[in-house]
Amino acid sequence: MATSVLLVDDHELIRAGLRNGLQATGDITVVGEAASGAEALAVATRVRPDVITLDIQLPDISGLELIAQLKEALPDVALLMLTMFPESEYVFRALDAGASAFLGKESTVLEIASTIRTIAVNPRSFSSPYLAKSSQERSHELLTQQERRILSLLVEGATIKEISDLLFISQATTKTHINHIYAKLKVKNRAQAVASALRLGLVAP
């Protein structure tokens, strides 16, 4: 059964290019188009698509604000954000708003089609090629300078006593910093913290 898609973008040429490319896949059907938030909401509730592609900037409403309205009307719909502005701020705002995926408009039709197929099956699985970079930036912002020093020492295999001696702080203070690091990285132990730090590029391997 074909995946049904609603295209929301105020640029007709972009919609046309995307429509032609997706229709050519054979397993994705464009069932509607909209050039504004109000039109998108009206068409979406009428055709009830599996996936909606959304531009972040629409003439009457932000695509990020529109997400909430669409999710209220169609709780199970998958939402793919397409934008010319793939900065980290938008990635996390889209995630927080309830988007299923986030791609730059420079993405190929094959990449967009592949993402549509994925989120049509699992709308709650957020996907974005910018997410790892954004996670790194957010983690850097969350960790204090002292916590980054301690994280680097943890990666090097230093003990709590060695970290305390090197940084001239008590072992109790070191343990408190480590607990804060675990909480911010959403990990439970040193091994997970080290793996997360290396994966996100927070420290040099």
Detailed description of the structure:
A five-stranded parallel sheet has the order 2-1-3-4-5, with helices on both faces. The mean pLDDT is 85. The longest helix has 15 residues. The chain is elongated. The protein contains ten helices and five strands, in the order βαβαβαβαβαααααα. It is of the alpha/beta class and 205 residues long. It has two domains: 127 residues, Response regulator (Rossmann fold, 3-Layer(aba) Sandwich), CATH 3.40.50.2300; 58 residues, Winged helix-like DNA-binding domain superfamily/Winged helix DNA-binding domain (Arc Repressor Mutant, subunit A), CATH 1.10.10. GO terms for molecular function: DNA binding. InterPro entries: CheY-like_superfamily (IPR011006), NreC/VraR/RcsB-like_REC (IPR058245), Sig_transdc_resp-reg_C-effctor (IPR016032), Sig_transdc_resp-reg_receiver (IPR001789), Tscrpt_reg_LuxR_C (IPR000792), WalR-like (IPR039420).
Q: In summary, what is this structure?
A:
By secondary structure, this protein is an alpha/beta fold. It has 10 helices and 5 strands. The protein is elongated and about 65 Å long.
Keywords summarizing the entry:
205 residues, Rossmann fold, alpha/beta, 5-stranded parallel β-sheet, Arc Repressor Mutant, subunit A
